[in-house]
Amino acid sequence: MNKSELIEALAERKNLSFKKSEEIINTIFDSMADALQGGERIEIRGFGSFVIKDYKPYVGRNPKTGEAIKVKPKKLPFFKVGKELKEMVDN
């Protein structure tokens, strides 16, 4: 499922216009992105949680040449699946 399919599903299930559904989904995603940028953790009970993981710098290798490459430190979002979602998918 992609973002536009999610918007369509919301519009159909809740009898909303596509435009209104798009505003709702965009508001949710923007709020989540803002929270993660602010260093906050997002927990959606039964679904999962999002956190920012800090990765330290390291020396990697170019797979073609074998040349050493310095990889800068970075922060990336990480999703941990919730127990209920895990069980729904596994059944």
How would you describe this structure to a colleague?
With 91 residues, the protein is of the alpha+beta class. The protein folds into two domains: 1-40; 50-91, no CATH class. It is 43% helix and 30% strand. The protein has helices at 3-13, 18-37, 83-90; strands spanning 42-44, 48-55, 58-61, 68-71, 74-81. The strands form two sheets. The protein has a three-stranded antiparallel β-sheet with strand order 1-2-5. Strands 3-4 form a two-stranded antiparallel sheet. Helix 1 (3-13) crosses helix 2. The longest helix has 20 residues, at 18-37. The protein is elongated, with a radius of gyration of 19 Å. The two termini are 19 Å apart. 2% of the residues are buried.
